[in-house]
Amino acid sequence: xxxxxxxxxxxxxxxxxxxxxxxxxxxxxxxxxxxxxxxxxxxxxxxxxxxxxxxxxxxxxxxxxxxxxxxxxxxxxxxxxxxxxxxxxxxxxxxxxxxxxxxxxxxxxxxxxxxxxxxxxxxxxxxxxxxxxxxxxxxxxxxxxxxx
Length: 148
Hints:
- This protein is mainly beta.
- It contains 1 helix and 11 strands, in the order E-E-E-E-E-E-E-H-E-E-E-E.
């Protein structure tokens, strides 16, 4: 089915895995959020003589945000994966991403997910939830249909 819309999903009705690990330990008010990497469908350039040229954006990336409690094992696993990518030299270690909403049937799969940041929990204060932000490269639905 793919994504009926890029948007927000309730993690309690979804199954999400990152690098084969089922994600749980969601934050108190967390949602799973998907968004386009680029809102632009294309670019237009106008030359000095007024001639315009148009090109389509070849951006096949969507963003995913997962909000987790820092007191859960999923936080530790995600942190380790983010750190492995952050400290890698040369080719980044591949991290897979799979998501299915059990109510709508919406799904997202990506063989390469890239951590946008290496989040850190708040220390010395009340524990807050931590947002993991990923880029999903060439995302498809469960049938292999490209989502972009």
